[in-house]
C-alpha cells in the first residue's frame, strides 16, 4: 500500500498537483462548486496510476487542482462506492493520496435521504456523527498500522472547529443547516419501509451510500474533516413513493448553491 501511494502521489506531483491545502469530495449531483474554482490542472481518474474509475453516470471522474478563496484545493469530481463493486480500500484510496500530497483539511459532501421527517428535501444537514452499516472497515487490512493507528478513535469523527464555523456561516447567510447523524449503507437499492423505520429507531437522521469510509480514513490519518449532506428526498415509511433518481439529482443541484456558500466561506476562513 505504501509503495502504491508513493507511486500515485509522484505521478500527480509530476502533473502539477503541488502543495494543496484542502481536499474536497463532491457527492452525487454536486459539481457546481467547480465554477468558483480557478482550475489549473485536471486529470481523469482513468489516467491516474492505481486509481479506481468512476462508473456511475452522474459522477464525472476527475481530480481537479486549483484555487478557491485564495487556498489551493484538490477536488474529487465524483467519488467511488461499494455498490460499484469496489473494496473499501479502493473507495478511500483518494483520501490517502490527497493526504500524501499535503492537504491539511478535508471537506466532504453527499446527497442523502432525510430519515428525520423534521428535515425536508432541499435542505442541508451538517453531519455530527455517523452509523456505519456498510458491513466492513477501510482499516481492516494487513499492514494498516504502517499508515496510522490501527485502533483509530472515532469518539468525535467530525472536526468540532470546522463544524462550528459552518454553523456560524449558515446563520450569517440565512441558510437552514440541520445537524444530525448520517447512516451509510451499501446500496445501490434504496431502502424498504421497514429499513427506514429501523434507521429512525437506531438514531439516523439521514441515509446515504458513501462518506463514512472516507471519514474513517481521514481520522486514521489525523486529518480534520467536515461533511454536509444535501437532503434530496424524504424517507417517510408511511407515505413512501417509488424512487425517482432524476428528481433526486435535480434536487441536489437546486440545493447545491447553499452548500457552496458554506464550503467557500469556510475555506476563506481557514
From TrEMBL:
What InterPro entries does UniProt report for this protein, alphabetically? Nucleoside_phosphorylase_d, Nucleoside_phosphorylase_sf, Purine_phosphorylase
Report the EC number(s), separated by commas if there are several: 2.4.2.1
Name of a matching Pfam family: PNP_UDP_1
Which pathway is this protein assigned to? Purine metabolism; purine nucleoside salvage
What keywords sit in the KW lines?
Glycosyltransferase, Transferase
**CDD domains per the record?**
PNP-EcPNPII_like
Q: Where is the Nucleoside phosphorylase domain?
A: 22-268
Query: Which molecular function term from Gene Ontology is one that the record holds?
Result: purine-nucleoside phosphorylase activity
Q: What class of enzyme is it?
A: transferase
Q: Coiled-coil region(s) at which residues?
A: none
Identify its protein family: Belongs to the PNP/MTAP phosphorylase family.
Function (record text): The purine nucleoside phosphorylases catalyze the phosphorolytic breakdown of the N-glycosidic bond in the beta-(deoxy)ribonucleoside molecules, with the formation of the corresponding free purine bases and pentose-1-phosphate.
Annotated protein name in UniProt = Purine nucleoside phosphorylase
Amino acid at each position: 500500500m505504501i509503495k502504491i501511494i508513493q507511486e500515485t502521489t509522484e505521478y500527480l506531483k509530476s502533473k502539477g498537483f503541488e502543495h494543496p491545502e484542502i481536499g474536497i469530495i463532491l457527492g452525487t449531483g454536486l459539481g457546481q462548486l467547480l465554477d468558483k474554482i480557478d482550475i489549473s490542472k485536471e486529470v481523469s481518474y482513468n489516467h491516474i496510476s492505481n486509481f479506481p474509475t468512476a462508473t456511475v453516470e452522474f459522477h464525472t471522474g476527475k481530480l481537479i487542482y486549483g484555487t478557491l478563496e485564495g487556498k489551493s484545493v484538490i477536488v474529487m469530481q465524483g467519488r467511488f462506492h461499494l455498490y460499484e463493486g469496489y473494496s473499501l480500500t479502493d473507495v478511500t484510496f483518494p483520501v490517502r493520496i490527497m493526504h500524501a500530497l499535503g492537504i491539511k483539511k478535508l471537506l466532504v459532501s453527499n446527497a442523502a435521504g432525510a430519515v428525520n421527517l423534521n428535515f425536508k428535501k432541499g435542505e442541508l444537514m451538517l453531519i455530527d456523527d455517523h452509523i456505519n452499516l456498510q458491513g466492513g472497515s477501510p482499516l481492516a487490512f494487513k499492514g494498516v498500522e504502517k499508515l496510522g493507528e490501527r485502533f483509530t478513535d472515532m469518539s468525535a469523527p467530525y472536526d468540532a472547529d470546522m463544524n462550528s464555523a459552518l454553523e456560524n456561516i449558515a446563520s450569517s447567510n440565512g441558510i437552514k443547516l440541520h445537524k444530525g447523524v448520517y447512516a451509510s449503507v451499501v446500496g445501490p437499492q434504496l431502502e424498504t419501509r421497514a429499513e427506514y423505520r429501523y434507521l429512525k429507531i437506531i438514531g439516523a437522521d439521514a441515509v446515504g451510500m458513501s462518506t463514512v469510509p472516507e471519514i474513517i480514513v481521514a481520522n486514521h490519518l489525523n486529518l480534520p474533516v467536515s461533511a454536509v449532506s444535501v437532503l434530496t428526498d424524504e424517507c417517510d415509511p408511511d407515505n413512501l413513493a417509488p424512487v425517482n433518481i432524476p428528481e433526486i439529482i435535480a434536487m441536489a443541484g437546486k440545493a447545491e448553491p447553499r452548500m457552496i456558500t458554506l464550503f467557500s466561506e469556510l475555506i476563506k476562513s481557514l
